[in-house]
Amino acid sequence: MSNSSYHVLSELEIIEYVRKIPGLFSENAQLICKEIGDGNLNLVFRIIENGSSGKSVIIKQALPYARVVGESWPLTLDRARIESEALMIQNSICPGLVPKVYHYDKELALTVMEDLSSHIIMRKGLISRNRYPYFAKHIGTFLARTLFLTSDLALDHQDKKQKVVQFINPELCKITEDLVFTDPYYDAKTNQFNPLIKEVIEEIWGHGELKLEITKLKEKFLTHAQALIHGDLHTGSIMVTETDTKVFDPEFSFYGPMGFDIGAVIANLLLNFCSHEGHTLDQEERLQYQDYLLNTVEEIWIVFEEEFRILWKGKASEPYASIQGYEDDYILRLLQDSLGYAGCKMMRRVIGLAHVSDLESINDPKLRAKGERLALAIGQQLVLKRETAQKIGDLTSLVRYVKNQEVDQD
Amino acid sequence: MSNSSYHVLSELEIIEYVRKIPGLFSENAQLICKEIGDGNLNLVFRIIENGSSGKSVIIKQALPYARVVGESWPLTLDRARIESEALMIQNSICPGLVPKVYHYDKELALTVMEDLSSHIIMRKGLISRNRYPYFAKHIGTFLARTLFLTSDLALDHQDKKQKVVQFINPELCKITEDLVFTDPYYDAKTNQFNPLIKEVIEEIWGHGELKLEITKLKEKFLTHAQALIHGDLHTGSIMVTETDTKVFDPEFSFYGPMGFDIGAVIANLLLNFCSHEGHTLDQEERLQYQDYLLNTVEEIWIVFEEEFRILWKGKASEPYASIQGYEDDYILRLLQDSLGYAGCKMMRRVIGLAHVSDLESINDPKLRAKGERLALAIGQQLVLKRETAQKIGDLTSLVRYVKNQEVDQD
Q: Can you tell me the ipTM of this complex?
């Protein structure tokens, strides 16, 4: 570790630290600090001013190892820099859609940022079948703006190359390369799955065509420096209220394929879609919520495409942006990539390390298996059929068709 | 300029400089220095020991500006670092196929390397219709080894990402982006062409489908960090004897699409092919030499593919390399990319800045136009039909077909 002054701060030290940052709290403020993190890679503290001001901030400090396996799995602190720098870029591109950064400390790998205590993690909201009428508009805009405006379409190509260097992120990319693209497709030690679906998973391990398509998607993840992507845009990286959306935790940011971010959002909505098959629910309530989710997927893409096309017209600096047919071709390839990456991200959450609570919260393994089987079936078809998709309706039709085959025919 | 001690060395200073490098010349050697460069971006000196030893070396010093337009076009000295570091990697991967590097001086942006005085620039050899029976074997091997062994197929993915950073090369990439992919396809000031072919060029400027395909190839050049490519692999960057081949000048190196290097070699053989239409030649001699060139193109690809497949079997570290069908799919995409980039590189040498002496050495503009028209016709078809190619014979058949249409029917 080259950061000689780095050490993990205690709650008391955090309070002293935050007090010294100008403009945050008054000098004599009574501050209360609480570790609220549930991640494995970072400490997250909330500091609240006692009294009527109600002021609060979040401090996130990166750990030099992954907590889940103790100190034996070292992990670069540079990810704190990447996260804070990505947040600052996203803030300037999409003000209001990410937490504000008040302070970044390189030595301590620590970021002080806006507290979102009135928001909840979107995944929890979806498990409770909440509806977020502004979410599609917000996330579609976030995707269009962050992806377009950091790409060669909008940036001077030389600036973009410097940003590729700034956001090179080998260690965190490796986590994705292993856990999303590699381990789930063979009998890897890291895999964890419901024994009841072992047969289906073994079919996947033996499915040559599927594995070839996964390989191509992995290759694109490794080589396609298209835009500064969030890199981990699941519904656990999004906080919501009924009217507000905040995207956070961009420590996996790097220059990668745009479809990886779009696919991540879609995959996590579809995982939630599948999970309701296993929750004890009134049939009609289930169908209505599943419809809501598919409508949201469609709306996200529609907002994304609309916003992306507006940027293409107004903000493209690449002289070829105006070449007849290029915009349509580009957006079609994005749609197809998004299907592919959504498929990968669905399957890894069922077969590999790190599942999602949407499905894990189903206690009965048999009921859970129902949702998991559906997720695997949809995931496979998204990967295999991605190049046949011409519009977002093709994705939702495919999901309905697979669900019909897998579940409704039972 | 941040390199405060940088200054352009005189021939006398060069002699003093080289004398201090241990192991090159004896202490009292009489050294003769001569500037032999004909490039626009660098000074190239040959230092010869007077007497019977016959020892000699080359010193290449990068200029902080492009000489062609005076000091008004500044250019990063970092390209000297990139060149020397690329040469060292290529030397370790392909010993004997690139000049040895004896010394690199960051401050002076200067590299001391093996002299190749017994070799000639391959372009000159081809203009003289020399044959190089080992060239296809050498360059096919060079391409396969440098491209495979610097890619994610062979390298640890984290090491590869560090190499992407090491070889980020914004300024020299910009030259390619402008001069190869952009300026030739509209009425840009930098363009220079034979007025006799203006009509054909205006057709290209108005050819929507062609420009869309060029745009896709440019996008791939901007975003596809596939391997450490040479970046400027024309026949002026290759020195040959009848039995030896040396690739030099990798100052445009960066992580880009493999097909760009393969296409560059093919394009320059095909430009030479076209030029013989304009040289006064016995018909049979012309046809025989053109056959030799097309056979060489085929042989290069065959050697490349064979060597690439051997490396795939023996040197792949990517666990997915063994996925059924991936190798064939990968190589087919390389072939199609190579056709596309070959097409771009042929057209830019006729329409844009910096022509090739193969064609420029034809004094009669009418005769030269004949070769230039053929080059543009072949270039266009290579770009437009690239995705129909399944084997290298499809490329050479296409060339023969276009030549038949363009020239033989006159």
A: 0.95
